[in-house]
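User: Here's a chain of 167 residues. Predict its fold as tokens.
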Amino acid sequence: MLTRIVTFAAGVAIIGTLAPNMLSQKPTAAKSVVAEAPADAPAGYKKVIAVSADAFGHYSVEAVINGHSVPMLIDTGATYVALSEATARRLGIRLDPGRFVVRIGTANGVVGAAPVTLSEVTVGPIHVRNVEAVVVGGGGFDIDLLGMSFLNKLKYTAGGEQLVLAQ
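Assistant: Prediction complete.
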């Protein structure tokens, strides 16, 4: 578990170092297109969504977490789904200060994070239950990331200006 948390922290630190402007604005949902399986989509999967990259090459989606819409940036460098404290409150996740025990680096410095489990995360036709996540405290994290704790439960491929998620 500690290795996964350290890997997540490294991913957040890299994002914060390489793309500080990305963290200063909320993502707007890219034109996500629910697609019939594209030619290069994995065979045998019934649920497929193709996500187009934005002008910066990022893949943003409008996810539904525990029944609430959340704009998110897909981040294969993040070990976990990562939510800001504000988003967690909007989703009804209440955390006492004692739960923020994991230290992670962000563009705004080192902050505490609290591990949580999300009942369900949905992107287009894809539904994943019991997704591990962290809530990043301190108010310095203002973008929500759809990390590997979600993506590892799917088949995904990236190429050109499109990311294809399949389940």
